[in-house]
Amino acid sequence: MPDWEKIFEEKGHIFVDSHPDMSRLTKIFKNADVKRILDLGCGTGRHLVHFSKGDFEVSGFDASKTALDLAVKWLKDEELEADVIQHRMEEQFPYPDDFFDAVISIQVIHHNLMRDILTTVKEVERVLKSGGFLFITVPILGPKPENPEDDWKLHQVEDGTFIPQSGPESGIPHHYFTEEELLEVFRNFKILEMYKDVTNHRCALAIRKF
Amino acid sequence: MKRWLMDILACSASDCRSKLDLEVYKSHTQESEGEEVDEIDEALISCPKCGRWYPVIDGIACMLPDDLRMDGKQHIEETAFLERWKEKVPTDILKNGLPFGLS
Q1: If we measure between CA atoms, which residue out of B32, B28, B23 comes closest to residue B40?
Q2: Which terminus of chain B has fewer Cβ atoms in its 10 Å neighbourhood, N or C?
Q3: Does residue B17 form part of some domain?
Q4: A185 interfacial to chain B (CB closer than 8 Å)
Q5: Whole-angstrom Cα distance, residue A69 to residue A84?
């Protein structure tokens, strides 16, 4: 089982700055009159803070209580509001159908076996309104690092899914989506944009089909 | 945690999705957009359909599946919650709570 609790206990705020495309995304959301946003796998809250500052109604969930405690403190320090829940993404989300105008998930949904990823996607479809926005980023499988210390010793457990045998995310599944696979998994969405970001992660901006 | 969150939250147990009940044990008021609002710090969430309970600890509703609540740090924190509020938690939850009580 992925031990995110241990990772957040050791590292605290793994990310502080928002994803570089969030300002552009904010403009897109504002123009589309987005109000409620879900940050799936919100971690220590960098995007809860970002979107709360933008006057959106923000909800987030994460499996790690340690991460959520840090998120709540960050929001409190900034005098911002967001609702956070401790929950796992491969379980039924505790929200009603068609509740959110947008769902974002930054470097999160790939941390599972494909069976569980499909459950997550199904739940995203359920809680997202028709015509609602989805923005996700996932990693791209690169060449084996030259420095042995950087080698996570990936062990393949199914097609496209690997479990690192060393490194900071040892034991945590990583599914490396191809572009074609993203199109298939998110077939109930209309893909508006698909691109690599400055950190070489694959990004997809989509809307849920009617 | 805001009280209104209970209007939307549903039980996350597989195939349940019932509306949930809330019993607040500790809260404070906080100013929000010029108004005083109730901020829940500690509370018991319970499902009238499947009988599960979930704690609100430090303002965060902890709604993990049963298997992730049965051991480790999570179990210690949630057991400490039951101990902390055992005078207020219903006896049937303390004795036979789902997924666990105080035994």
Answers
A1: B28
A2: C
A3: yes
A4: no
A5: 9
- How many domains is chain B built from? 1
**β-pair partners for A135:** A104, A205
Domain that holds residue B45: 3-96
Q: What is the mean pLDDT of residues A186-208?
A: 95
Nearest to A92 among B12, B58, B74 (CB): B12
Cβ-contact A151, A145 below 8 angstroms: yes
pTM for the full predicted model: 0.91
What is the arithmetic mean of pLDDT over A164-193? 91
Helix%, strand%, coil% for chain B, nearest 5: 25, 35, 40
pLDDT for A1? 41
Question: Does residue B103 form part of some domain?
Answer: no
Alpha-carbon distance A82 to A55, whole Å? 10
Contacts of B14 in chain A (CB under 8 A): 91-92
Mean pLDDT within A172-200 = 94
Give residue A141's pLDDT: 86
pLDDT of A171: 84
**Cβ–Cβ of B9/A95 closer than 8 Å?**
yes
